Amino acid sequence: MTDLAQRALEQSLVKLVRVTPVSKVTIGDLTRDCGVSRSTFYYHYRDIYDLVGQVVVARFGVVIGKDRGQGSWPEGLRRVMEELRRDEVFIRNVYAGVDHNKARVYLMEQGENLMYGVAHQEAEAIGADDEAARGVAHVYAFIFVGALVEWVSEGMERDIDEVIDDLRTTLDGSFAHSLANWKLRNDRGGKKKR
Question: The whole model's pTM is what?
Answer without folding.
Answer: 0.78
